[in-house]
Amino acid sequence: MNPLVKAVEYAVRGPILLKAGEIEMELQRGIKKPFTEVIKANIGDAHAMGQQPITFLRQVVALCTYPNLLDSPSFPEDAKNRARRILKACGGNSLGAYSASQGVNCIREDVAAYIERRDGGVPADPDNIYLTTGASDGISTILKILVSGGGKSRTGVLIPIPQYPLYSAVISELDAIQVNYYLDEENYWALDVNELRRAVTEAKEYCNPKVLCIINPGNPTGQVQSRKCIEEVIHFAWEEKLFLLADEVYQDNVYPKDCQFHSFKKVLYEMGPEYSSNVELASFHSTSKGYMGECGYRGGYMEVINLHPEIKGQLVKMLSVRLCPPVSGQAAMDIVVNPPVPGEESFEQFNREKEFVLSNLAKKAKLTEDLFNQVPGIHCNPLQGAMYAFPRIFIPTKAIETAKAHKMAPDMFYCMKLLEETGICVVPGSGFGQREGTYHLRMTILPPVEKLKIVLEKVKDFHIKFLEKYA
Amino acid sequence: MNPLVKAVEYAVRGPILLKAGEIEMELQRGIKKPFTEVIKANIGDAHAMGQQPITFLRQVVALCTYPNLLDSPSFPEDAKNRARRILKACGGNSLGAYSASQGVNCIREDVAAYIERRDGGVPADPDNIYLTTGASDGISTILKILVSGGGKSRTGVLIPIPQYPLYSAVISELDAIQVNYYLDEENYWALDVNELRRAVTEAKEYCNPKVLCIINPGNPTGQVQSRKCIEEVIHFAWEEKLFLLADEVYQDNVYPKDCQFHSFKKVLYEMGPEYSSNVELASFHSTSKGYMGECGYRGGYMEVINLHPEIKGQLVKMLSVRLCPPVSGQAAMDIVVNPPVPGEESFEQFNREKEFVLSNLAKKAKLTEDLFNQVPGIHCNPLQGAMYAFPRIFIPTKAIETAKAHKMAPDMFYCMKLLEETGICVVPGSGFGQREGTYHLRMTILPPVEKLKIVLEKVKDFHIKFLEKYA
């Protein structure tokens, strides 16, 4: 067996989810538990938590799937127009034909137009857009191309700690060197460029740090980076000739009024040609998050800036081997970047649905922060963005010792107990990385408000009992 | 840049397709050519060639996409029942939720039931079924897990020559050792177990041959393996403790009356417990080929037999990192394995559509063989299965020299000339591998009959002129 594969870890669907599956089976077999259902707050899976799909997106994809519906009076004209345009760009006018390896042309054009609007007119070239099978696929592919060298010249990839474990998994699989930089928990999980500098300086002793991964808004940490921070990071990447990977899949998920999403691309261009013509950047987006939550479609795109033409050629070749991203996911991506606009028949309903999801998420972000911070021994930074809470949990020494006796990380022990006693499935902080001696958990805020309140109350009760038990 | 990535080649979407794209652009810009359109016979992309989707499959996927349609009287009840069942098995009853990493449970159950029916009752366990993002994804993932060792103990992967270039691409990316075994062109491209033995024996000098890849029906060669041949291969794999990868994506594409598809799984079980409890096997299927040709959905499955539980765990982990295969592709796969049955409302139309596609393919297979064999300097084996012709083409010495002067493989030179002069895009045999000094091309037989005749006439005229020019 491949030792690199063996070394891969992926906590979001790791042992805790296997255990959750076992418990669900036991419940089905009628085994009595102190709860009646398992609540999977381990993964950002909006629809599984009851969020409804955006009607317009589904109408367009259904029309593309079964074009007979183009004659049906029950579909709005704007949806039909979108579907006709997508089908016209597909081989044989069918979602069943392979698309170009880079994705359907007109969808890449729509992505470029979306980026230009988002970034206040900074130009975007459809040739730089690659549609992907979710953001994960894009991130893995670009990392695969960039990694090289052996020994001390092996590529080092800088990732935030805490991170989303796709990064550590891919780095491990590629036998690249993971270089950690720590986000500042005391300062709302901000990225401090001095910490980046420390990480790069130390890494140069044992590898060739070449790639810098940023997750903004943060997963699992939920911070939204300030414009100033992004400028500093770009300047640092320019100085150190680092390739920037900007994971921006939560760009629509920003909640407090005083926070705003700034794309790395926009800031890069606003910093002037010295930066915008030199710093290599790939940024990622997806159908899975935002207000649409279409995880199952595996739609996504990446935009690359200043990529060497030879690397671009390699990228297309590697995408070609897998033929193309799922075309229905590409169609879904098109609606994310090209939604109804004011004046179109579907605009009002679309906007109502979108605002409903986003305002609820904002409410739940605040609720979660507030409720966690009422619990003794739990501290939760504000959830400025994304869809997770990553509170710090105090674990008593006796519990840490018990965990170690079970050969478990203390926060894994905590999360397992939480699952067994309440049916709530969350992921231990150790799956994302955390400063030595600190413990966390990641929980999604996706359950509906009333259910989320119950979940948080249950976590509170569990935590208080846990503290008592291991006092 | 990763040198392993640089070494990857994928001819089906290689330089010839880039050139075809350039020519299409020139045609669009009004540049005059001796033809008015580029015909992309380089890839098995049925819908792009005008094949119509199977109505029932699209109805079910549309119903799953936009469940409001479940109330519409214009959809048949059997399609609605399929859609309701799939949705019930999805998180939040939505195609937009992530599925389990291994795929939606009820779809895996349907796959297992399909395999049992196909294999005359040989049992299939849903736990052994993994839904994938097309067959390519399954093949890459399993190879990634199996490859290990360094130097002389590096894993050797046996592949047929000619092969489908996904295999060489993945082997190259994984830095595994490609071990070629040659199919016997003089004997309808049959697989000779003596040739397998030669290949393994020689390979043991420089690597650890551990995996044996079989493509049946053959791509690009179109042969259908006899039951006897499969038995011999399984016996050989058992003797040599080889892991069998059976690429069976063309299992529905078998044309002559005296040919029959035998799955490796079925033959393995029929050979008795000594084999069926020991030989490790993974077999692959897809929504992309057969009579449905739904390439764009990226649906597929693999069934694994005798996989060690630890490797199974690793497999689920690696699939988890990518979260799940596209759920709409999983739904499409469900209809491939669970189509309407006699007595159901949609059966008649489904069956008519299926037979139309398959009988046309059979007709085109014969037509292609016959027409190619009328051309002096072209020899084409019978197309027993799949959807390609792989004729041997005689290239005169003068043309070989000209090609070499252009630093091109002689058959690449030939195919480039064919593309430039006729607009027909096919792939040179060198992209699939062929015996030294022989030349071939791969062409799909997917264009509609009348168009295919024109294509074949054009190839004939081109070939005759080519022979004259380089005589």
UniProtKB/TrEMBL annotation, chains A, B:
Pfam hit, one: Aminotran_1_2
Substrates-to-products reaction catalysed: L-alanine + 2-oxoglutarate = pyruvate + L-glutamate
GO cellular component, one term: cytoplasm
Pathway the protein takes part in: Amino-acid degradation; L-alanine degradation via transaminase pathway; pyruvate from L-alanine: step 1/1
One of the GO BP terms on file: L-alanine catabolic process
Keywords: Aminotransferase, Pyridoxal phosphate, Transferase
Cofactor(s) recorded in Swiss-Prot or TrEMBL: pyridoxal 5'-phosphate
Top-level taxon of the source organism: Eukaryota
GO MF entries: L-alanine:2-oxoglutarate aminotransferase activity; pyridoxal phosphate binding
EC number(s) stated in the UniProt entry for this protein: 2.6.1.2
InterPro entries named in the record: ALAT1/2-like, Aminotransferase_I/II_large, PyrdxlP-dep_Trfase, PyrdxlP-dep_Trfase_major, PyrdxlP-dep_Trfase_small
Keyword hit for Transferase: yes
Ranges for domain Aminotransferase class I/classII large: 59-458
Similarity annotation: Belongs to the class-I pyridoxal-phosphate-dependent aminotransferase family. Alanine aminotransferase subfamily.
Subunit structure as annotated in this protein's UniProt entry: Homodimer.
Function, in words: Catalyzes the reversible transamination between alanine and 2-oxoglutarate to form pyruvate and glutamate.
Stated name of the protein: alanine transaminase
Species annotation: Vombatus ursinus
Name of the coding gene: GPT2
